Predict the structure.
Amino acid sequence: MKAKNLIVLLLSLFLSELNLLAAVPAILPRPNHIELKKGMIRFEKELSVSFPSELTLEGRALISWLGRNTSLKIEKIKKEKKADIVLKFEKQNQFQTEEGYSLVSEDGRIIISSYAGKGIFYGIQTLKQLIHSVDGVITVPNVCINDEPRFAWRGLMLDEARNFKGKEVVKKLLDEMAALKLNVFHWHLTNDQGWRIEIKKYPRLTSVGSYRDSTELHHFESNVFDGKPHGGFYTQEDLREIVKYAAERHINIVPEITVPGHITAACAAYPWLGTSGKQVKVSPKFGAHYNAINAANPKVYQFLSDVFDEIIDIFPYPIIHIGGDEVRYNQWNESNEIQQFMKEHQFKSGAELQVYFTNKLSEILSSKGRRMIGWNEITGDRLHEFQASDEKKGLTNKLAKGTVVQFWKGDPALMKKAIDQGYEIINSYHIFTYLDYDYNTISLKKAYHFNPIPAGIDAEQEKQVKGIGCQMWGEFIPTVEDMNKMIYPRIAAYAEVGWTNAENMNYKEFLESLQSFLVRWKLEGINYGPLK
Ligand code: ACM
């Protein structure tokens, strides 16, 4: 053997002795630091778990999972030193956020520690994937994991304005999000085709706005309708139940009330909300509609303030989504009232009025202690062909500071522009993250290779990329089976993009880690799309 080859052989023996070459266990999303040690832990008959009372929620959830997924006798014990699995707070650790955790399994015990319940919860999600159960014996490899997410915001959006799915479907999605360490459920609850959230002060929003008499089929502009009524909404009681369910899984809910466009269902309930003031019906047709809110009417701002009061009472997360996408300015251009209002404010373009309106909402929300997020039209950038004539009219005002911009459309350079102006962004660029796009357009592989960091920003500015979103728009997914096929398995790719540092990502290993999810999804009847 040549000396060089011998050195390589010796080096690899040495490395394998250190277990650096050993296969890394299949965990999805891939942890950011994982060291596999020699050997494994076996549990044959019983297993004890200890946790402090502050971790009761997480501890009980783990015990219940172990009970369902193993045949061992599971016991909660007080004495940490005697327990097989220990959940505990660790104040002194290396993590930047409450989501970081460490999981150490060695010497026959497993210890999960973190600053906070969130991290412990994520450590448990990792542990579930490390546990192998065969013939009543469970094994866990000896490992040392120190892990925390790349991005703080790891979101999934569900649009139920277009097709109402209901509480149980949402809960199931929250379960799957939690297993994948996704932490923001962005809930698109209002649009032209339905208003799905009970607002007690304005009961017609749901008594009228949550039902339509027909639905457009197949694709945009098909003009083929099913002629069947569709409806549904969440009572405030339902919403509180879901908020609690999500919180138990360390998921924040960001409700979206879409204004000033996409408001046809609200106008059907209260025509004075719209610029035309005309009675309209909840739209059976999809696409961007012309109804735009009457931004000159003080009653509209009072309405939104009242709606936010009820929303804030239900949803504790400090950020509220106000939509802002695809506003057609035609009604504003045609309305004497709006034109007069614009003259008074020296606005020349629809975008200026939209920025003004959006900033009013920001004021209302911040007076109530909340922060605003909206789709990237709220910056005043014109993203659509139908805004071409508005673009010539210029833009003199600026979106309120502190607003989070959810980038979905337009030149990616607009992300850098927003970041340069000091905004935080969520990257939901449609060509990479829209779950309603078919697999020919966004394959699993393409979803996995989504790079959330826009070109041209520096390392310090990367911190302004708060996170990522993937979006399940609901126009043409009437059934849960259709919906699941679009969400799964791509949701897993987005989860890894959101959690795992770019240098630790590997598509081949991701596909291997996905296997256990596929098996479980199949068992649970979750329809999933192609693995290409
Ligand atoms: C959007 O897709 N209209 C945000």
